[in-house]
């Protein structure tokens, strides 16, 4: 399905044998498979069996970033990820903290935990390096979330060692942010525009128009939650809940505001021919082309950079997927002014992303590193792990068979 995401998707662009997908020019998957073939892998083998013998590297045989110390059955059959594009790899290699700094410099930036015992963790010691992108890998249930959420993050929040004997080095961070897949909001009244404060800029923009001044409308009136701004029928939600016997409630588009959330008086005010309600129905990408370069566009471009350019500005917050919520949180965090270095903790940030979206995410992460921040993420996707400057693998199994540092 595709060819894009959100309103740019929803169409079946190909159905048939995988070898025929190369004929579909608008398929980004076909482009990815072509990149695999052009990079030395046998494209015919990839599309025929979708599996080849994986290239496994360990600490003894390779010193570059990747999956270090990973041991696997030689009979394992995995599809290799397409190699990172040259421009992405070159950027990762420039000033990569993992391998370019002296031992003394790395020691000054070290932080971590000692004797971590949350859930199935076996009193492990884990050391990290600041200003580096670190991947936490391992099978499901190996203790990855326990290490990041139950030990590292909780210890920082409570300013003491939690579920471990010692925590050290976190004082070098002004803030530690956990960006996971929990919903950014469960309310229909919260939207990407309101969550990222773009709506505040829109309200100010419309309040300054001549039409708003003639009608005596203030900035507050351009809120779909205000008394004068919200649609009197749906209360600013853009939809009305209909109860169904023996079935889940159904939300139907409001007949009065036609899903635009606002009262008629507010919708009568136009900016470049569009009401604020109509602008909220634009996708992020559409809004970037609508507005002149400035503060609003800068915020919109940040949303696009993290891979959610397909979202509507006024999309109900409770309709976002876990991956979309996570990237929305990231965009908000990046748009806010920080007092100092920040440690970002992510839980499987590649969820729901295509290969090309992951490349975009890598660029965002590298941008954080270049400005002096630190990124640690739990991840299974080989392409994202490949981009990390350091890798910590937990295992070897799950549950009681896990909880050890394997590599």
List the helices and strands and how they pair.
Blueprint (H helix, E strand, L loop, with lengths): L27 H11 L4 H7 L36 H8 L3 H4 L2 H6 L1 E7 L7 E6 L3 E5 L6 H15 L7 E3 L6 E5 L12 H4 L2 H10 L2 H5 L24 E4 L7 E4 L10 H4 L8 H5 L3 H7 L4 H11 L16 H14 L6 E6 L7 H16 L3 E5 L3 H6 L2 E6 L8 E2 L2
Parallel strand pairs: 3-9, 3-10, 5-8, 8-9
Antiparallel strand pairs: 1-2, 1-4, 6-7, 10-11
Helix pairs in contact: 1-2, 12-13, 13-14
Give a description of the structure:
There is one protein chain. This protein has 407 residues and is of the alpha/beta class. The protein has helices at 28-38, 43-49, 86-93, 97-100, 103-108, 144-158, 192-195, 198-207, 210-214, 264-267, 276-280, 284-290, 295-305, 322-335, 355-370, 382-387, and strands at 110-116, 124-129, 133-137, 166-168, 175-179, 239-242, 250-253, 342-347, 374-378, 390-395, 404-405. Strands 5-8-9-3-10-11 form a six-stranded mixed sheet, with helices on both faces. Helix 1 crosses helix 2. The chain is globular, with a radius of gyration of 24 Å. Mean pLDDT is 82; it is low at 40-80 and 94-100.
């Amino acid at each position: 399905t595709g060819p894009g995401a959100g309103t740019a998707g929803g169409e079946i662009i190909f159905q048939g044998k995988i070898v025929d997908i190369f004929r579909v020019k608008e398929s980004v998957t076909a482009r990815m498979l072509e990149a695999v073939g052009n990079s030395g892998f046998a494209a015919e083998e990839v599309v025929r069996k979708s599996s080849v013998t994986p290239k496994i590297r360990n600490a003894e045989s390779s010193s570059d970033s990747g999956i270090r110390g990973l041991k696997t059955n030689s009979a394992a059959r995995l599809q290799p990820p397409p190699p990172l594009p040259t421009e992405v790899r070159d950027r990762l290699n420039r000033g990569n903290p993992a391998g370019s700094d002296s031992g003394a410099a790395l020691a000054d930036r070290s932080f971590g935990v000692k004797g971590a015992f949350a859930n199935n963790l076996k009193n492990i010691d884990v050391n990290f390096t600041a200003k580096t992108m670190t991947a936490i890998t391992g099978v499901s249930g190996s203790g990855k979330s326990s290490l990041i959420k139950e030990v590292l993050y909780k210890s920082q929040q409570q300013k003491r060692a939690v579920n471990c004997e010692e925590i050290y080095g976190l004082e070098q961070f002004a803030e530690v942010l956990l960006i996971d897949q929990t919903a950014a909001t469960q309310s229909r009244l919260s939207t990407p525009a309101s969550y990222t404060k773009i709506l505040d800029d829109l309200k100010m923009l419309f309040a300054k128009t001549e039409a708003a001044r003639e009608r005596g409308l203030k900035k507050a009136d351009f809120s779909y939650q205000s008394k004068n701004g919200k649609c009197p029928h749906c209360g600013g939600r853009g939809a009305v809940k209909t109860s169904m016997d023996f079935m889940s409630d159904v939300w139907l588009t409001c007949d009065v505001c036609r899903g635009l959330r606002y009262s008629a008086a507010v919708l009568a005010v136009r900016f470049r021919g569009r009401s604020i309600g109509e602008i909220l129905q634009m996708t992020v990408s559409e809004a970037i082309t609508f507005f002149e370069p400035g503060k609003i566009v800068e915020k919109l471009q940040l949303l696009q950079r993290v891979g959610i350019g397909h979202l509507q500005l006024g999309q109900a917050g409770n309709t976002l997927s876990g991956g979309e919520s996570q990237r929305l949180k990231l965009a908000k965090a990046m748009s806010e002014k920080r007092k100092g270095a920040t440690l970002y903790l992510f839980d499987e940030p590649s969820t729901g992303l295509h290969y090309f979206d992951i490349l975009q995410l890598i660029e965002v992460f590298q941008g954080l590193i270049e400005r002096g921040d630190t990124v640690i993420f739990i991840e299974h996707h080989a392409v994202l792990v490949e981009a990390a400057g350091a890798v910590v693998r937990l295992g070897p199994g799950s549950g009681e068979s896990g909880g050890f540092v394997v590599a």
